[in-house]
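Worked problem 6 (solution included).
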Amino acid sequence: MKLSKRFGAFLLAAVMLVSVLAACGKQEPAPTEAPAAQPTEAQAAATEAPTEGKEPVELTLWTTSRNSDEFTAERQAEFEATHPWIKLNLVVKEGDPGNEFYQAVAAGTAPDCINGSFTMMDKYISAGIVAPLNEYLDKWDETEQLDKSYLDMFKRDGNYYGIPYQVMPMLFAYNKALFEAAGVTEAPKTWDEALEAAKKVNSGDGQVAGYATLAAEWTEWFFQYYVWQAGGDLTKQNEDGTVELTFTDPAVIEAAKYYQKLSAEGVLPSDRTLKFGDLLDNFARGKIGMMPFAVDWVIDVANKGMDLDDLGLILPPAGPSGKSATAIAGDCWVINANTSKEKQDAAWEYISFITSKEERALYYENLASKGAIAPVTIPRTDMSITDFCLKIGLPSCPLLVRSAAWSSTARLTSVPMLTALCRRFCPAPMQIPRRNSLMCRHRPRRKFWLLSTKLTRSNAEQNRQNRQI
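Solution. The predicted structure is:
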């Protein structure tokens, strides 16, 4: 996939738009055995390598067909080559392995470690099904390079339970080619503007839907963002820690009315049984004008054949509250607390391998070589996604920064989604707070700011409402 200069500009703008934000979950078919990776020369040589007196261990991992590519197979083979006492048992589990891990532990069919959603972590930790990682982190020479802002999200009573892997925001995508053909010259900033644009983009014959949202599955996933944008929430946490549903909240009613309006105006897909994968397929094929969109889906739609020059990413249009609210998401590695100590040790060997700086660099270099970099956040202090933008001809941006607001105390009270913005690339005027300023190297003496998108809900609230893609 060859990147054009226009997509390069898009990607840099998207990287600027993102620092931390997120998204959701699936349930699909039962697991099947994954095809075995072909042994590399290093792996073959490892059969003769000493195992340092270690007993052989089989480590069961869940994977998905989405993640079962040649590069991943090569890296897993390299792991086995460098850890000859560990045999990987890869089981394909379509949907969201992290989301179904909870039920699998109860059934005794869970893997030894998984890559799961940020949003499931409170549930995992409260249930005691993930093992504390302190003994491993204390000895790992890369612990100090993990971004503590994210590592602390999974800390309870002094124990760490997850290793953050990647952070993704939930944004809003539109098809630039469809917009241009319909005479829409600007990306929508409000619900009303989005509806008007959708009317123009809509083909009227069912071939192109101006707008799409989930209706056949996980309806609360997208719907919650509209409730937040209307100024409310689907739940309320009481002082005693219990949660109360707020489905009669005026903001919930406003969000439901907007859904009704989209339907009444005929801008939604005529087939209301479309599932998440179907929406991505149709968006990639130019059959949908706009929809909520997580940044890591850039790679998915590119693989489905979409011209990335046609992809526009913006903050979600603001609702009646005037706020462009969305969520952060990400994934992290955890170890099954109910598996044996030998398997837990083997699981850590795999996690520390796959999350190491060297492996992370290889992963993003592989994506860069295919022109498939997505504007995600790498939760480490010693690398940034902009490092790999350089490999596809994009300049490194000095404004992709971390904020002190992401502290352990902030996690317990409010978690503002912080984005480093350079107005040189910002697609639309945005509200700027009065503090957290910095100088941009693109234009000396010009002041730029860190933006908060006003999502100030606790980590626990996010975990109750979000799902992992």
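Discussion: The first strand starts at residue 32 and ends at 33.
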